[in-house]
């Protein structure tokens, strides 16, 4: 039998998580000697199977900022309960900074109808049929955080039934 090498395991882990850079900004800090340049990267990390995270990284170079953003995104993962039709269980709202996001489930075949960073968050979470609307701010970071906040508020029927100490069948009646 062939022995598995360390590199094959690392490759499997890398393919599980997808990362998308939403924005890279050049930011400056005014210091005694002048202006200090650095980069801010907004990265969304997800496995398309119900886990997604929004991360921000700052560094002197773009590659370093993206790496820090990926690490930050993995620290702030959100579990998303998906239905059989690859949608969400119920409508939800989320807020992040000045941004508000409204997310609603959609019928199979609808696709992801959302804009900007909210679309990226939903796609990397593995949601295939959903309607979303950004309200308020157009800031990509705040909208991504608002979408993650909305997805974290989702609950399944079984979770609700368990909280209420009621059988699932009673929820429908």
TrEMBL record:
Any one annotated GO CC term: cytoplasm
SUPFAM superfamilies xrefs: dsRNA-binding domain-like, Ribosomal protein S5 domain 2-like
Domain spans labelled S5 DRBM: 17-80
Alphabetic keyword roster: Ribonucleoprotein, Ribosomal protein, RNA-binding, rRNA-binding
Gene3D superfamilies tied to this protein: 3.30.160.20, 3.30.230.10
An example Gene Ontology molecular-function term: structural constituent of ribosome
GO BP term, example: translation
Pfam families: Ribosomal_S5, Ribosomal_S5_C
Entries under InterPro entries matching the protein: Ribosomal_Su5_D2-typ_SF, Ribosomal_uS5, Ribosomal_uS5_bac-type, Ribosomal_uS5_C, Ribosomal_uS5_N, Ribosomal_uS5_N_CS, Ribsml_uS5_D2-typ_fold_subgr
Annotated PROSITE patterns: RIBOSOMAL_S5 (PS00585), S5_DSRBD (PS50881)
Recorded superkingdom: Bacteria
Role this protein plays: With S4 and S12 plays an important role in translational accuracy.
Comment block on domains: The N-terminal domain interacts with the head of the 30S subunit; the C-terminal domain interacts with the body and contacts protein S4. The interaction surface between S4 and S5 is involved in control of translational fidelity.
Quaternary structure and partners: Part of the 30S ribosomal subunit. Contacts proteins S4 and S8.
Family that this chain belongs to: Belongs to the universal ribosomal protein uS5 family.
Protein name as it appears in the record: Small ribosomal subunit protein uS5
